[in-house]
Amino acid sequence: MIFNRMNSLSVCTLALLAGTVSCASPRSSLPAPEPTPAASDSLPNDVKWVRSSAEYRALTREIYTMAGDRLPELVRGLPARGWAVILDADETVLDNSEYQRRLAVEHSAFDAKSWTAWVNERAAPAVPGAVGFTEHVHSLGGRVAIVTNRSMAECDATRENLRAIGVQADLVLCQPAGEADKNPRFQRVQSGGAAPGLPALSVVEWLGDNIQDFPSLTQAARTDSAALAQFGKRYFVLPNPMYGSWEHVH
Fold first, then answer.
1. Is 19 exposed, middle or buried (0-12, 13-18, 19+ CB in 10 A)?
2. b/e map of 216-237 (b: 16 or more CB within 10 Å)?
3. Can you give 195-239 as a three-state secondary structure string?
4. Which are the contacts of 223, defined by CB distance < 8 A and separation ≥ 6?
5. Is 178:118 a contact under the CB 8 Å cutoff?
6. In this structure, how many other beta carbons lie within 10 angstroms of the beta carbon of residue 36?
7. Per-residue pLDDT, 42
8. Contact between 152 and 176 (Cβ < 8 Å)
9. Could you give the CA distance from residue 220 to residue 33 in angstroms, rounded to a whole number?
10. In terms of DSSP H, where are the helices of the chain?
11. What is the pLDDT of residue 47?
12. d(Cα 223, Cα 228) in Å, to the nearest integer?
């Protein structure tokens, strides 16, 4: 085969020198490789929507604007520094879609070790609208309380991440061991037992991405219109299609 290929090339070379024919270089019969898709194209739609869509950014800004517009009416007659709003942290104030992106790329599932490593990076950006809303709360004389189910061991890193994005939280309550239910912490904010020197506060609004971020609510509220009556008035929910207590609903 090598001898025949060399003969063929020699004939072609002689013909070119004589000016009688043109010879094309031999081409591979293999098809051209498909272009590699962009990294975002391989993400699950829920993660891609949060990270890339205009709709997500428009919606979070809209919700925070609505919550801010309600405040002057809700705090009328309340003493300055005597009222508060309670916000969840993850997917309400802090955007963890980068962590979700990494899980998707690595074909991994959530686990405590990788989550704590992400928290300790202190790298979560702000959910659009969150920083401006907390500034608005302070400008009206209110306090910002973050009630999160991040562990106590993750609380210092969480506070630093919040400060890094410009959120000046008056109070950050992480999850004590065995207290996944946020209601006791909500009650401590309202009764004055949340932190030394902090008085009882009138909580005028709650903001979160999970139904359990709101007082006494669970996924059972989906069939109870009365339980949902405060949404848009004192309760404001942020979109999170990536994870949540809804995953366990059948």
1. exposed
2. ebeeebeeeeebbeeeeebbbb
3. CCCCCCCEEEEEEECCHHHCCCCCHHHHHCCCCCCCECCCEEECC
4. none
5. no
6. 8
7. 86
8. yes
9. 51
10. 2-18, 45-52, 54-74, 97-105, 112-121, 130-139, 155-165, 183-191
11. 98
12. 9
CA torsion, points 81, 82, 86, 89, in degrees to nearest 10? 30
Burial class (CB in 10 A: 0-12, 13-18, 19+), 13: exposed
Regions of the chain short of the pLDDT cut 50: 1-39
Burial class of 182 by CB neighbour count within 10 A (0 to 12, 13 to 18, 19+): buried
Report the alpha-carbon distance of residue 205 to residue 68 in Å, rounded. 10
Tokens of 132: 């401006």
Ordered by where they begin, the domains of the chain are 45-248 (3.40.50.1000)
Q: What six digits make up the tokens of 157? A: 């890193």
Nearest to 51 by CA among 94, 107, 110, 95: 95
Using DSSP, state whether 144 is helix, strand or coil.
strand
d(CA 19, CA 238): 75
Contact 157, 122 (CB under 8 A): yes
**Tokens at residue 234, please?**
């004192």
pLDDT, tens digit, 9 for 90 and up, residues 53-86: 999 999 999 999 999 999 999 999 999 999 999 9
How far apart, in whole angstroms, are the C-alpha atoms of residue 73 and residue 217? 24
Q: What is residue 31's three-state secondary structure?
A: coil
CA count, 13 A, side-chain hemisphere, 79? 5
